[in-house]
Amino acid sequence: TRDDPMLIDYILRTILPRRGIAARPEEVLLTMGAQNALWMAAEILLGPGTVAVQENPSYSGLRVMLGQRPCHRAFVDVDADGLPPEAIPKGADVVFTTPSHQSPTNATMPVARRLALLDRARDEDFLIVEDDYEFEMSFLKPASPALKSLDQEGRVIYVGSFSKSLFPGLRLGYLVAPEPFIREA
């Protein structure tokens, strides 16, 4: 009926601090991989009349998931720095992004753009689902801070996974979000 407290503690003490994220146990939920975490976020956040924004190109599994939700979808073309916040259409409810290692272009969103995205989310009242896909694959420079670590308002739902860092077959992921969202998930 609940997640393994030792694994949650390990995530809180070891994994999340590497990304600059501070959270409480009630703000973390184990999932069956990142794909399952993304599906949960879409199920909870997207209903009739909502607008989901996703990167173009984007993870094909996310395209399928969002295509099955009763929401409107908008696509924003990524550039060499990932998702441009100024291109997000008005009326967005949820923006799905992979700022640390954009899939499939491998673009990394600079910190200034991450802050601009958070400003836009605050000003226009939308949420962000951050898929921290392969953040540890930054070989040329240190990994940029997670978008969640820069979030002062609880607008970012963070999706992480152990599948690349431990082994691909593990299929274990986690969500980090405000406690009411985690309870709903």
Q: How does this model look, in words?
A:
The chain is of the alpha/beta class. Helix content is 31%, strand content 19%. It contains 6 helices and 7 strands; from the N terminus they run αβαβαββαβαββα. The chain has helices at residues 5-18, 34-45, 60-67, 111-124, 147-150, 179-184, and strands at residues 28-31, 51-56, 72-77, 94-97, 127-131, 156-161, 173-176. Strands 1-7-6-5-4-2-3 form a 7-stranded mixed β-sheet, with helices on one face. β5, α5 (147-150) and β6 form a beta-alpha-beta unit. α2 (34-45) runs parallel beside α3 (60-67).
Q: How would you summarize the topology of this molecule?
A:
Elements: H1 5-18, E1 28-31, H2 34-45, E2 51-56, H3 60-67, E3 72-77, E4 94-97, H4 111-124, E5 127-131, H5 147-150, E6 156-161, E7 173-176, H6 179-184
Parallel strand pairs: 2-3, 2-4, 4-5, 5-6
Antiparallel strand pairs: 1-7, 6-7
Helix-strand string = HEHEHEEHEHEEH
Low-confidence stretches are: none
What fraction, in percent, of the residue positions are helical?
25-40%
Give the strand content.
15-25%
Largest sheet: 7 strands, mixed
Count the helices. How many? Answer: 6
What is the end-to-end distance?
A: 13 Å
List keywords for this structure.
185 residues; seven-stranded mixed sheet; globular
How would you briefly describe this protein structure?
This protein is an alpha/beta fold and 185 residues long.
